[in-house]
Every structure is written in structure tokens, then in C-alpha cells.
Design a protein that fits this description.
CATH architecture of the domain at 242-272 and 288-413: 3-Layer(aba) Sandwich
CATH superfamily of the domain at 242-272 and 288-413: P-loop containing nucleotide triphosphate hydrolases
Distance between the termini: 34 Å
Mean pLDDT: 85
CATH topology of the domain at 242-272 and 288-413: Rossmann fold
Largest sheet: 7 strands, parallel
Helix content: 25-40%
Number of strands: 20
CATH class of the domain at 242-272 and 288-413: Alpha Beta
Strand order of the largest sheet: 10-11-9-12-13-8-14
Strand content: 15-25%
Radius of gyration: 29 Å
Shape: globular
């Protein structure tokens, strides 16, 4: 019962603090226990000031002087002099004006930060500071730092955690005893105590290993249980039609890659059985996932059954309808395609519903409009979900429920995830990877561009536009303050002046559906030369004549997202170019430099994981429940161990009913990972 107790009952927490804690998602004691630190400041190795060397340092010193001043518009500097028995050192903070009032002269603090040379003088830059009196007598330690806001500091959170440590110390075990023993894990209570109040770096590592193991174990167990449940259902068997397959391949305007042939063969083999297919096809941008999905769809249509393809945006749904019609029309199935989107007029929706009811529409392509109550899909045999990670669980489940039975499910993703990680996260799915580019496709040339090179770049781009090419310009957001040169609306105004002889259009998510469609159709038909957009064009938009991608404020995008964006160009026979515009004169980051030399999405995904360590699998809020908070996504050994333990749990016929906490977590994760 102590776990569900309101934090208001914890000593030192009043009504105002309760409100502030709720903004961090903290309402109960259990919430606070589960609120792991973001990182730790190491105050355990204290160095005398006279022995300081460049790098991260910690000192115990008395503040002698504190001052603050504005050096230019928007830049505030706080400086202090800290002294111990061996000497003095300067402390410097940028844009932390509150430091001046927070530091007390002649009081002793632990100071931790980077000791480095700045303007011919050594100083500790932007250090963390803690009063020495807040530490145990004569000792220092690893200090947990939590996610904060302007109302709640890490210091306050550490104080609250100290109050509930007795509850943590009496928490029961959540994993089976044999799992804890076989894998030499810390008991859960000790691990939780150590994650919030570590006595040493070794104890902290052991705590992270124990709690990280449980993260992977529960995720693996949820996906394995889902796979068992899926395998027990029955789908409609779709026989492989050899002659139809040959006709389809012969009608294509290009040659299938070996990877496409292998993947489509596996899909057709899956669909021949009544055991429902649940396959994820991962392929880099431009690897030909749509052609694979088209061939699988043809097999279903030839059997007289239905296919539904759900895309995350109306723009992408329209693109799919056009592409699929091109692929399957030579075989006589083009007339069976029906586009269904939320932006359609009432009469269009009525005609669509009639076509579905009569059986005329056999291949339904759309957005979430496919899951409307009035849409009947009783003979649905195959569901294709494009960019499946962008749909909510309930949306996917409602689409599946419409079939009245378990259909085959083919999920497509252009977000490369390394195989080992994908098998962990999508344990209930069979995985296929398209790792070849179409024959003759040229790699996009990527260049980093500093602010001083913009004029030269514009001249280079104008030459390509004069040759009949087109350009995407992607911005990190739609609008901003007047000085924000990266906002789409500001960039649009600027480019209409910089390219007065070119037609420039603007596209973003706040526009009405009809407006977005009109703008995109103008660009596709080359009625416009330049399209300024937000990331609404990130996935799936196919304009073969667009050979230039310019990304404003490239530092503000993730590595995978930048790779996705540049995949929008160079999709025809002409060379594609991607220009990453930098904002300042600081050296570009390692991840941005990697884009200049790497064109393989899976290589970039591996690098991204190495750079990020623990963290989000997708990096978007809707998938936050799949974030791994403690396990580095590159720790294949721990991931494999925990995954094997989950498989052994099921092999031993263990019952989740014997593990109440574990059952709650696994049941929740099943609804998140499960596509069915």
C-alpha cells in the first residue's frame, strides 16, 4: 500500500510541491521510485586546486567572490573565485544568472565540471555545485541528477528519495528466483536503492545491469507471448500463383533485386499457410518495399480476397494508390484499388462505401479512415501497414478487428533498425531486410554547408534548377520568432526573394488537406520548382525529378530522420544532392559528418545507437513506453541474456499469475508491442 501513497504524505511535500511534482509525472511513491536519474555527477574523487589538470574535475572549496554581468545582448556570465588550502580557481557559468544569488560567500561547496583553458586563463566551466554540508561527513559521492523543471530541482528530488528509501529497502522481488540466481543479478530492492543513492561506481553498474536486464526480460516476454497467441489463430490461406508471379515481374519497368526476390518469396510462403503471417519488412529508403507489397497483394486479389493498406498520412496514402495502380494495372487489378481518406467529401465516401459493399473494391488504401465503423472488410486476407511504428496500437487493432478473423499482416518500415535490436523489440514478428538498392540507383551526394557558403550554394542550386530539376527545402518547424531564420514560413519568404525567377511553394502540417494536396500535386507536375516544407515530406513522397534536398538547421534533426529526408531525392536516373545547412561556425558533429560518407541506413543506425547509448528506440513521444532507460542499445550480450531468460521462462511453463508485478508490466507491454 505504501507504493500507491500520494507524495503529499511524504515529509516535506506540501500542496504547491505536489502540483509541481505532477508536472514531472510524479504523483505516488511508486512514480518516484521509478523516476531514475538521467546521469550522475562524480563528486567521489576530490582534487586539490593546485593539482588540477584539464578535463573533468571535482574540488571542495570555499567561495570567495561572486559576480554576474551581461557581456552582450542575451549573454550573461557569472564568475566566482573558489579557494582551498592549496590555491584558487575561477568558476564560469554562461546564461545562469541565478548562480550569483545562489552561491554564498565563505561557504564550502563541492564543485564539479570541466577544467579548461578559456581566453588564456584556466577555469572550471559551467560546473555543478553542491553544498558540502549536504554530503555525509568527510566524504563525497556519486550524485544523481534527475530530469528537472523550473519548479523542481534535483536537490529537492534527492531529498524526497531519501525519505522513501526505507520503503525501497523493503520492496519484494519481481523476477523469478532462478533468473536472479542464474544471471547473478542484484536483488531488486538493493538495485533500486543503488540507482538512487549509489555508494560506488561498481554498485551503480550492478544496479543498472539488474534493472536493465528486467527491462529487456519483460519486453521479450511480452513479445514472445504475443507470438504464441498469434500463431494459435487462423488466417485465409493464399496459394502462390507461379504464372501470376512471372507476369508481375515481367510487367515491372525495372529488375527486382535479389533481396526483393528473397523477401517476396518468404511472404508468399507465409501466406500459403493458415497460420497468420506477421512479418516486418525493413528496408532503407528506395530499397523497393512497395514493389514487394504489390506482388503479395496481387496473389490475394487473384484469389478473390481483399487487401487493405494503411498509411500514416493522406499524402502518403495518395502516393501509394498511384504507385500500386501502376504496379498492378498491367495484370488487370488496377480498377479494384480504392482510396479512402478522411479528407474526402461526403459523396465520395458514400461512393466508396458502395464500392466496398458490392465487392468492386478489393484493394483499399487509406489512412485511419479505413477503420471507420461503416467500412466492412469481412473477406480481408492481407493487411499492409506502412511505417507501422507511426500508428497507435488501438488504430492497428481496430483495422485488424474489421476482418472478423486474423488476416495476414505485412508491416513495412523505412526506419532502419539493426537486426539484433529489431529482433528484441519485434520479437513476435518475423523479420525480413531489404539491403540492396535498385540497379542503377546513384547514391545521394551529401554536403555540409556553413553559413558563409550559402550564396555560393544558391548559385550552384540555381544552375540545377535551370537544367529542369526541382528542390525540397526542409525546415525544423513551421513558424517562430521574427529572428528565427529556420522557420518554414520565414525560409519561404526568403527564397521567393532569393529565387525570384523560380516558382516557390510552401507545405506544412497546419494547412488544410485540400491545400496540401494541391501544393504537392503542383510540385509533382513541375508547376513549382522549390517546395519549402516541414518533415511532412519525410516518408514516402516520390518525385523522381526532385534531385536537390536542402535542410535548414540540420543540427536540429536526428540522424535517422536526416537519412530519411535525403531519401526523397535522387529517386530517378539523375544524381541527387543533399545539402545540410549549419547554423553556427562550430565544427559539425560526428553524426552530421557521418552523413557525408555513409549512405547505408543500417550502418547509420548502428552509429546512431553507439552515439546515443540508452534511450529511445524511435525518439518520438508516442513510443516512449518502448524506450530503454538503462540498457545501452548496443549491449548485445545483456540483451541476448535477458531474451534467452524470457524464452526459458515460457519453456518452463512458468505462470505470470505467480508474479503479480511482472504480470502487470508484461500485460502493458503486450498492448504496446502487439500488432494484433
Amino acid at each position: 500500500m505504501a507504493l500507491v501513497k500520494s507524495l503529499e504524505e511524504v515529509r516535506g511535500v506540501g500542496p504547491r510541491m505536489v502540483e509541481h511534482l505532477q508536472t514531472l509525472g510524479l504523483s505516488t511513491v511508486s512514480d518516484l521510485i521509478d523516476y531514475y536519474p538521467r546521469h550522475y555527477e562524480d563528486y567521489s574523487q576530490v582534487t586539490p586546486i593546485q593539482n588540477l589538470r584539464p578535463g573533468h574535475v571535482t574540488i571542495e572549496a570555499t567561495i570567495k567572490q561572486v559576480s554576474g554581468r551581461y557581456v552582450r545582448r542575451g549573454m550573461h556570465i557569472t564568475e566566482a573565485i573558489a579557494s582551498d588550502e592549496s590555491g584558487s580557481v575561477r568558476l564560469v557559468w554562461f546564461n545562469q544568472a541565478y548562480r550569483a544569488s545562489g552561491l554564498k560567500q565563505n561557504q564550502t561547496y563541492f564543485v564539479s565540471g570541466r577544467y579548461e583553458l578559456r581566453r588564456q586563463r584556466f577555469a572550471i566551466m559551467n560546473p555543478s555545485v553542491e553544498r558540502a554540508s549536504d554530503f555525509p561527513v568527510n566524504t563525497a559521492r556519486l550524485l544523481p541528477v534527475y530530469k528537472e523543471n523550473k519548479h523542481v530541482s534535483s536537490r529537492q528530488l534527492r531529498t524526497l528519495v531519501q525519505e522513501i528509501l526505507p520503503i525501497i529497502d523493503h520492496l519484494g522481488e519481481t523476477l523469478p528466483a532462478w533468473v536472479v540466481k542464474d544471471h547473478e543479478l542484484l536483488p531488486r530492492s538493493r538495485a533500486l536503492h543503488a540507482i538512487h543513492a549509489p555508494r560506488s561506481s561498481h554498485e551503480l553498474d550492478q544496479a543498472k545491469r539488474r534493472l536493465g536486464f528486467e527491462e529487456i526480460f519483460t519486453l521479450g516476454l511480452a513479445s514472445l507471448i504475443n507470438k504464441r497467441a498469434n500463431d494459435s489463430e487462423q488466417a485465409l490461406a493464399i496459394p502462390f500463383n507461379v504464372e501470376l508471379a512471372r507476369s508481375f515481374v515481367k510487367s515491372l519497368p525495372f529488375r527486382l533485386t535479389d533481396a526483393q526476390r528473397k523477401v517476396v518469396w518468404r511472404i508468399c510462403q507465409d501466406m500459403e499457410h493458415i497460420r497468420p503471417m506477421n512479418r516486418l519488412v525493413e528496408g532503407d529508403v528506395g530499397s523497393g518495399k512497395t514493389a514487394v507489397a504489390a506482388m503479395a497483394s496481387v496473389m490475394v486479389l487473384a484469389k478473390g480476397k481483399r487487401v487493405a493498406l494503411m498509411a500514416p498520412t493522406e499524402l502518403l496514402a495518395r502516393q501509394h494508390a498511384k504507385t500500386m495502380r501502376d504496379f498492378i494495372s498491367p495484370l488487370g487489378f488496377g480498377e479494384r484499388i480504392l482510396l479512402l481518406t478522411g479528407g474526402m467529401r461526403f459523396k465520395e465516401k458514400q461512393r466508396a462505401a458502395a464500392a466496398i459493399a458490392s465487392g468492386q473494391a478489393g484493394f483499399l488504401i487509406g489512412t485511419h479512415a479505413l477503420i471507420q465503423d461503416k467500412i466492412d472488410m469481412h473477406d480481408l486476407a492481407l493487411i499492409i501497414i506502412d511505417e507501422q511504428q507511426r500508428f497507435g496500437v488501438r488504430q492497428r487493432a481496430r483495422l485488424l478487428a474489421k476482418a472478423g478473423h486474423m488476416p495476414h499482416v505485412l508491416s513495412l518500415s523505412a526506419t532502419p533498425i539493426p537486426r539484433s535490436l529489431a529482433l528484441t523489440i519485434y520479437g513476435e514478428m518475423d523479420l525480413s531486410i531489404l539491403d540492396e538498392k535498385p540497379v542503377g540507383r546513384l547514391a545521394v551526394i551529401t554536403k555540409l554547408v556553413s553559413p558563409t557558403e550559402r550564396i555560393r550554394l544558391y548559385k550552384e542550386i540555381d544552375g540545377q534548377l535551370a537544367a529542369g530539376r526541382q528542390m525540397f527545402v526542409v525546415c525544423p518547424h513551421i513558424s517562430g520568432i521574427e529572428e528565427d531564420s529556420r522557420a518554414a514560413e520565414v525560409v519561404y519568404e526568403r527564397l521567393t526573394k532569393d529565387f525570384p525567377h523560380r516558382k516557390v511553394d510552401l507545405l506544412h502540417g497546419r494547412m488544410k488537406t485540400d491545400e496540401k494536396t494541391t501544393v504537392m500535386e503542383r510540385f509533382i507536375s513541375h508547376e513549382s520548382d522549390v517546395l519549402v516544407s516541414t518533415t511532412v515530406i519525410e516518408v514516402g513522397v516520390d518525385v523522381p525529378n526532385a534531385t536537390i534536398m536542402m535542410i535548414e538547421g540540420a543540427e536540429h534533426f536526428g540522424l535517422a530522420q536526416l537519412h530519411q529526408l535525403r531519401g526523397r531525392v535522387g529517386r530517378g536516373i539523375d544524381q541527387g544532392y543533399c545539402y545540410l545547412l549549419l547554423e553556427g561556425n562550430e565544427p559539425p558533429s560526428r553524426r552530421l559528418r557521418a552523413l557525408e560518407t555513409m549512405n547505408d541506413g543500417f550502418q547509420l543506425a548502428e552509429l546512431d545507437l553507439n552515439l546515443r547509448g540508452p534511450g529511445a528506440v524511435y525518439g518520438t513521444a508516442q513510443h516512449g513506453a518502448l524506450d530503454l532507460r538503462l540498457v545501452p542499445l548496443t549491449d548485445s550480450k545483456l540483451i541476448s541474456e535477458a531474451r534467452d531468460a524470457a524464452e526459458k521462462f515460457l519453456e518452463k511453463d512458468e505462470s505470470l499469475l505467480h508474479y503479480k508485478h511482472l504480470k502487470v508490466v508484461v500485460d502493458r507491454l503486450r498492448t504496446i508491442t502487439n500488432l494484433n
